Amino acid sequence: MHFNTAIATLSVSLSFSLASPATTYYPSGGCPPISGDFNVSYFQLYPEGFDYDPVHCKAYFGSLFNSTVLRKDLSTGEEEVLTFPDISENHTYHVSGVQYDRKTGAMYFSANNGIAFSSNGADLTGPNRFIKYNTSTDRVVFITDMDSVVAQLNALTGYQYNGFQDMAEDLAGNAYYVTSLGPSIFKVTPDGTPSIFFYLPPKFINGTVQSNWGGIFSVGNILVSLDNFNGKMFRLDTTAKDPFKDYTTYSLADSPVQVHCDRTYPPPMFDGKIVLCSNDGNGTYVLYSNDLWQSAKYLGLAASPNYGGIPTASCQIANSLYTNTEYFLDGVTFDKVGNRTDFPFTDITQKVLQLTRSVGIDINVD
Ligand SMILES: *[C@@H]1O[C@H](CO)[C@@H](O)[C@H](O)[C@H]1NC(C)=O
Ligand SMILES: *[C@@H]1O[C@H](CO)[C@@H](O)[C@H](O)[C@H]1NC(C)=O
Ligand SMILES: *[C@@H]1O[C@H](CO)[C@@H](O)[C@H](O)[C@H]1NC(C)=O
Ligand SMILES: *[C@@H]1O[C@H](CO)[C@@H](O)[C@H](O)[C@H]1NC(C)=O
Ligand SMILES: *[C@@H]1O[C@H](CO)[C@@H](O)[C@H](O)[C@H]1NC(C)=O
Ligand SMILES: *[C@@H]1O[C@H](CO)[C@@H](O)[C@H](O)[C@H]1NC(C)=O
Ligand SMILES: *[C@@H]1O[C@H](CO)[C@@H](O)[C@H](O)[C@H]1NC(C)=O
């Protein structure tokens, strides 16, 4: 650990002396700038996923066990809880992934089957829903029932896929909703129609299905994920004639450990070249690509304190980068609700920028 830190420090100072990185100014836009750590205090919030709407300056925190979403204006403190019929307070569902589509202003929520995760992949038969929310009208656009397309995939392959959590979108407003227990991607059109888009055979160890894709992100029409089973990057062009033939996988360059990612997220301030990978452990790995993710390089770890929980997601809020802390061990058993009220969010902006400077990317976020 000390060895890796020393190397990282060395390469940072080296690139400084060779070529000073160009500093780009990143304005917070119309939203009030934010910096420093904060808590979101709401009983049983347990936010596993969160994202930010920079048009209306509101953060959306998924409440994992309640299957609600807390929408909050972090500068005024104004907040409200969004509920979804048949889903909220229904313990069949966990709301994990939360994802803002900057192109359409939609916010997506994953209302996924809880048992798939709490059973560690032993029970993969439960239902899943995919929610699209309009941040301008404050209305649900659709709640898509994924069960018939998942059954179709089961009939096609003989495998049970489940463990939905993350999503990404293309330039045409389609969303791609991904399973991690068995790697599959379902396409959901702007009006909410789901179809099978891509899949690979699940990986099993001793009869138990393993987690492949924790997160997915898009840059333009390119979908990218990291396979937690083998640590390899996965890239697919959504406009390819045959995704099953055109996808690629490759190793992450310069990675000192096998990288494991939960949410993978490209902060808008870096224009798709930097991705933050929440490592479900001690922080957020910072990944870099300068060729639209045909190759990628590990830059380092932005460590966070995590206060007894683990980081599962990161997000740019106005002009700063934040990681959450999720507490999976507060309940009577793993992945069950506890009685916590304060949920810490850690400002990792400067730690991330320290790493991006090694590849000549520097941003003045003031
Ligand atoms: C974080 O965890 C990784 C393994 O996932 C380890 O290699 C690294 O040393 C840890 N870093 C710190 C700062 O604890
Ligand atoms: C968050 O809440 C905890 C108590 O639950 C407290 O110890 C900590 O100081 C708070 N952090 C911030 C940034 O307010
Ligand atoms: C979660 O549910 C509990 C119990 O109904 C309620 O008191 C709390 O306000 C809810 N929190 C959220 C964020 O939905
Ligand atoms: C909870 O969800 C399950 C699965 O969709 C459904 O069968 C059940 O009716 C729901 N329960 C409530 C109280 O909404
Ligand atoms: C949100 O609603 C507005 C007004 O009806 C519409 O113009 C816009 O396309 C909607 N956006 C999404 C993502 O549904
Ligand atoms: C699989 O099962 C065998 C026999 O019980 C055991 O030795 C091995 O450690 C298991 N492998 C894993 C990865 O759990
Ligand atoms: C949460 O608090 C309630 C009410 O005090 C208690 O019955 C329950 O056991 C607590 N849950 C946990 C996981 O500690």
Automatic annotation (TrEMBL):
InterPro entries: Mala_s_1-like. Keywords: Signal. Residues 1-19 form the signal peptide. The lineage of its organism: Eukaryota, Fungi, Dikarya, Ascomycota, Pezizomycotina. It comes from Elaphomyces granulatus. This is SMP-30/Gluconolactonase/LRE-like region domain-containing protein. The keyword Signal applies.
